[in-house]
Here is the input.
Amino acid sequence: MAERATLLPIRATPYPGAMTGDFSRKPTLTGDRVVLRPFREDDNPAIATALQDLEVIRLTGSEPLTWDEAAEQKLRDWYAARNTQPDRLDLAIEDRATGQWVGEVVLYEVDIRNANCTFRTLIGPSGRDRGLGSEALRLLLPYAFTTLALHRIELHVFDFNPRARRVYEKAGFQVEGIQREVLRTPDGWADAVQMAILNPDR
Ligand SMILES: CC(C)(COP(=O)(O)OP(=O)(O)OC[C@H]1O[C@@H](n2cnc3c(N)ncnc32)[C@H](O)[C@@H]1OP(=O)(O)O)[C@@H](O)C(=O)NCCC(=O)NCCS
Here is the structure.
């Protein structure tokens, strides 16, 4: 017997109101202490320092990299390609006091149909605990919800990172749940907290 089609027909634009804005455009967003901007080639040394920083590695749950020529090349290739990605937004956080790269904010895993995405950030050793991460989010969120027309942004933060959680809560992210024991650390298993912010939460 021939297999019967059981799926409903898919309409080309089922939810036209849920389309997002243009992720291929990389804006410059200027605040008091930071500028969010596209990446530059001369950011690479500061990026390399941040990615080897033990606190960044620990708090983002990353594997420590063996820092050799191949890793350097991978970094150069990855960041050279950030400004032309059509389906995500990666922006450098520049410290206005120095004009230098101190970190990054990223909107990725964009689900256009449902106008949602995932957020991550990191700030290198020279930029932390100076209010820069909080201001970077304050600049990014209005752009994400207004210009990019997102409805929901989610993130995960490990339970041993109260500073990041504080920054996210200040920005309006709410806790939605706990992913139990998702990360193996030298101190044992760690949970991740799932948080999200909706456009109407702002
Ligand atoms: C998380 C991160 C982006 C925050 O940016 P930042 O510029 O360092 O943070 P800010 O200085 O803007 O704000 C830190 C806030 O946390 C608070 N804080 C600092 N340490 C804290 C702690 N141990 N417990 C609770 N709150 C803490 C500060 O008091 C401040 O809150 P306030 O403005 O109400 O006083 C940055 O520290 C970072 O990249 N860290 C390493 C990588 C990382 O954790 N990435 C996120 C993974 S989810």
Notes: Residues 55-56, 59-60, 103, 121-123, 128-134, 157, 161-164, 166-167, 170 surround coenzyme A (CB under 6 Å). The mean pLDDT is 92.
